TrEMBL record:
It holds the Pfam family ALO. This is FAD-binding protein. GO terms for molecular function: D-arabinono-1,4-lactone oxidase activity; FAD binding; L-gulono-1,4-lactone dehydrogenase activity. PANTHER family: D-ARABINONO-1,4-LACTONE OXIDASE, L-GULONOLACTONE OXIDASE.
Length: 408
């Protein structure tokens, strides 16, 4: 059975029918019979990085079959499992993963492949938790990537094949307290930017580019809240990620399991605004203040198109296509209004300010840079191209987006 789908934000229609194999063996048969195929996750990408002109395959009907290896502190599970479901199942067995993004609705496989992340000075991309990948490649052949191979294979946008199972690092289950704060003076945020993000396990700032910082979400593993202001921001019962429907947001002011507090939005509710577009750029921490000052310089032009920007930190890694490869970064995430005529002309202007500072774009969100300028941002670009060619010489798993970004 096949169907045709839009992405979550409904800003693009997928070009191909979607097949839902019920097992890895059925997936292998499907891939072997296809000339062009690509994996499709929970459809949260804003670019066609998961599209194809052949056949899309979604693994949402393959049982997750979670297996925890307590001795190794790892868990292996089907790639289509949603992050919130993975967190809940692990918690039931006394385990957790160290990091989660704002949306628990995203599949593990999609999150790993597309540079999804949370926030925290000591927390890397979700891809840094991966200890092994099981992949169905050309002709339906299965192989496993592990060890040193993961630096190139783990963050691949589906270019190497369809990831079926993923082994991730886990740790004993832990609780998180989430606190919210309103209206941090911009001067305070800028002067103490590093201290703000170092103040807790996970910190997010929500802002526009005129006026003060709208608010902060502070997620702690050890501290029982704040008695007073947080860098000039007053404690608040209101989640600054709230868009007017309280049931969408995870609870503030109380302790809870990490899988239900590290995300901003509840697994059981439709997340975020819904009618939106997104862009995101990762700036080396040493250039963070300069980047924010530069964006505020065009704040009057940005703000009419913007719902809000979330500022987060991500720790450096060694993954070849990671936006945090080689440097700790500040993530500057734009949640735009669903108005492409306003948003798209702003992207080159934003990139004019951020790319010279070493910023890299989030490939699953809207960005303008292409070609050689994009290539120069990734020291291991050619290494990944060689890996891709070895894994998929006939380009069974390419698509128009990957051909445009990586080349044919």
């Amino acid at each position: 059975m096949v169907d045709v789908e839009r992405n979550w934000a409904r800003n693009l229609v997928y070009s191909a029918p979607v097949a839902h194999p019920g097992s890895v063996e059925e997936l292998q048969e499907t891939v072997a019979a296809a000339t062009r195929v690509h994996a499709l996750g929970t459809r949260h990408s804003f670019t066609p990085c998961a599209d194809t002109d052949g056949l899309l395959v979604a693994l949402d009907r393959v049982a997750p079959d979670l297996v925890v290896d307590a001795a190794a502190w790892t868990a292996t599970v089907g790639s289509a499992i949603r992050l919130g479901d993975l967190g809940r199942l692990l918690d039931e067995q006394g385990w957790a993963i160290a990091n989660l993004p704002s949306l628990p609705h995203i599949s593990l496989g999609g999150a790993v492949a597309t540079a999804t992340h949370g926030s925290g000075d000591g927390l890397g991309m979700l891809a840094t938790l991966v200890r092994g990948l099981e992949v169905v490649g050309p002709g339906g052949a299965a192989r496993r990537y592990e060890g040193g191979e993961l630096a190139g294979a783990v963050l691949s946008y589906g270019a190497l094949g369809v990831v079926t199972r993923i082994t991730v690092a886990v740790e004993p289950a832990f609780a998180v307290r989430q606190d919210a704060f309103d209206a941090m003076p911009w001067a305070e945020a800028e002067a103490h930017l590093d201290e703000v993000f170092a103040a807790a396990y996970s910190v997010s700032l929500f802002t526009k580019y005129t006026g003060d910082v709208r608010g902060a979400l502070v997620k702690s593993r050890t501290r029982d809240g704040w008695d007073g202001p947080f860098f000039g921001a007053a404690p608040s019962p209101r989640d600054p990620a709230d868009i007017g429907a309280a049931t969408k947001n995870t609870e503030v002011g109380t302790w809870g399991p990490s899988w239900d507090r590290l995300p901003h939005f509840r697994l059981a509710a439709v997340p975020s605004v819904g009618e939106e577009l997104q862009s995101e750029y990762f700036v080396p921490r040493e250039a963070a203040r300069e980047a924010l000052r530069s964006l505020r310089g065009i704040g009057a032009d940005i703000d009419p198109a913007l719902h809000v920007t979330e500022l987060r930190t991500v720790a450096a890694d060694d993954l070849w296509l990671s936006a945090a490869a080689g440097a700790d970064v500040l993530s500057i995430g734009f949640t735009w209004k669903d108005e492409p005529d306003l948003v798209l002309p702003l992207l080159p202007r934003i990139e004019e300010r951020l790319l010279p500072l070493g910023a890299r774009p989030h490939w699953a969100k809207l960005f303008a840079v292409r070609g050689e300028r994009l290539r120069t941002l990734y020291p291991h670009w050619d290494d990944f191209l060689a890996l891709r060619h070895a894994a998929d010489p006939e380009r069974v798993f390419t698509n128009a987006f990957l051909a445009e970004v990586l080349g044919p």
